[in-house]
Amino acid sequence: MRFATIVSYAALFLVLLSRDPVFVAVAQELGQQTPSQSDIDRLQGNWLLVSAERNGKRIERSNAKPFILTVSDHVLASNRFPDNRYKYRLDTSRKPWQIDKFLPVLKKWQFGIYEIKQNRLRLCWASSDKPRPDAFVTTVGDSRLLQEFRKHSDRD
To answer: What 8-state DSSP symbol labels residue 5?
Structure first.
């Protein structure tokens, strides 16, 4: 079989697959999980805190103003602490993907991991004197903070 014929069959196969809704859904889900330079773009914007956990215990949300994380140009900020702005860096070459934020008062980096799936963002932070988390869990005494956010819009 000639190379041009094989290429034609492969192209036809891909066109047929692209019309299959299951294939499209799986491809989109994989696309959301694949680390790339576009993570910075995907992180940009406002994220509404949905749940949080520390030391294996859920942190109850108050009825006060919702916590919104704002990500822009390598800076993390929140509506609760508008004067605190943290420089951050990403490393998608490791699993789970890594995020670090610089704590200017302590003059050190805080280590974390992150995951983005569709409109959800999960962050797990070690306390400033502990090693990076290796999973999105907290247990008694580990001083980790696990946060789950959803993309926030002005309609919320």
So the answer is: H
